[in-house]
Write a structure and sequence with these properties.
The protein has 15 helices and twelve strands. By secondary structure, the chain is α/β, with parallel strands linked by helices. The chain folds into two domains: 158 residues, Rossmann fold, CATH 3.40.50; 188 residues, Rossmann fold (3-Layer(aba) Sandwich). It comes from Bacteroides faecium.
């Protein structure tokens, strides 16, 4: 019997509850699904299979509860249906695994919060991407079964052999600037103030902040019939963004504009340091992505992020103290010169490669099935 078989010697059949059309800017699950397949598991991704199928699965693997019920779901009836579907599959011998991405939802309502409660309490094993998450979860669920499996890196996904010079030429950036890049949507005013306040006060003459999803302005008609908000947003997009960018040494865009997956590696390659711009966060895919591109990372000393950055020798900060962020940026600048990026790459290839992570998930599936 190997990692891909249950106790009867049959191949393990698993369902990851995630959209199956591949329409996502977060490639965590598609890459993880391929990694688990490489370990010999018969696995597929589908949300409709969970809700509509009577197929027998050995494992049903939850990721974000929002992917199960819908990211903006406010129908109280979905809570009852979720409990019914879990009971239905469990009556057929299915076991449930949950990978914990967030402590709680970013944009919570009562329905989605209840979905979190149900999935957290009903899962047979919870996978954490760091000891911080595991300890915090056990404090809430003392009888839970937990395992730590690191966030995989994004191998074989993006173009990796892009030079700094070529990337900066492609993005029309200065070859001489010290570029700090903050990927991902800035979620609120606090994150914007935290980053811009520290960046403005940082005494680095060559600094440039690359933040493609910073501003809360939009050229789209996202405010419907509210004429004032619509025009305020468009004025901000066309007039204030260029003004702020020149004034504050930024190259930043609107937070509702996604980075194309073809362009993303150029942003990464062009950077000297990757900044995780969250005040409160459990995990971030930007850390393994930065490690793959041999970049130094600076981020808040919170959650699994602070744990991983500290373990690997990268810089962390107290998100409530501007001086702490500036010191971390200064430390990251030195680490970039001293070759910390290469050490990050070596660490990631040894500990976060997709074959290793896929095998660890396969082993977890086997253990939960066989008890």
């Amino acid at each position: 019997m190997n990692n891909s078989e249950d106790i009867s010697g049959q191949p393990i059949k698993a369902l990851i509850v995630f959209r199956e059309n591949g329409d996502t800017d977060n490639l965590f699950v598609p890459i993880l699904c391929d990694a688990i397949k490489m370990a010999g598991i018969d696995v597929r991704c589908s949300t409709s299979e969970f809700w509509n199928s009577d197929t027998n699965y050995d494992i049903i693997h939850f990721q974000w509860p929002e992917e199960v019920v819908g990211w903006t779901c406010d129908d109280p009836g979905v809570v009852r249906r979720l409990e019914e579907r879990i009971r239905f599959f469990r009556s057929r011998g299915t076991r449930f695994v949950y990978t914990r991405h967030n402590v709680r939802p970013h944009y919570a309502n009562e329905v989605i919060s209840r979905a979190y409660d149900i999935i957290e309490s009903e899962s047979d094993v919870v996978v954490h991407m760091g000891q911080f998450s595991r300890k915090e979860f056990i404090a809430r669920y003392p009888d839970s079964r937990n395992v730590v499996i690191p966030h995989h890196i994004y191998q074989y996904t993006y173009k990796e052999d892009i030079s700094v010079e070529r990337a900066r030429q492609y993005l029309n950036l200065s070859q001489d600037a010290f570029i700090v890049t903050a990927f991902g949507k800035f979620r609120n005013r606090e994150e914007i103030d935290m980053v811009l306040g520290a960046f403005r006060a940082w005494n680095e003459p060559r600094k440039m902040l690359l933040a493609p999803r910073l501003y809360p302005f939009s050229k789209r008609n996202k405010y419907g019939g509210n004429l004032f908000k619509r025009w305020t947003s468009r004025i901000g997009y066309y007039l204030l963004i260029p003004l702020f960018n020149r004034w504050m040494k930024l190259k930043a865009g609107a937070n509702d504009e996604l980075i194309d997956n073809c362009d993303l590696p150029y942003y990464m390659a062009a950077s000297d340091v990757i900044l995780i711009q969250r005040k409160d966060i459990l995990n971030s895919g930007n850390v393994p992505l930065a490690f793959l591109y041999r970049k130094v990372v600076v981020g808040p000393n919170v959650g699994n992020i602070g744990e991983l950055l500290t373990e690997t020798g990268n810089s962390t900060f107290d998100p409530d103290r501007k001086e702490s962020i500036i010191m971390a940026l200064e430390s990251a600048r030195r680490l970039a010169l001293w070759g910390q990026g290469e050490m990050n790459y070596t660490y990631a290839m040894e500990n976060m490669n997709i074959r290793k992570v896929g095998k660890e998930y396969a082993q977890t599936y086997k253990q939960v099935i066989n008890g």
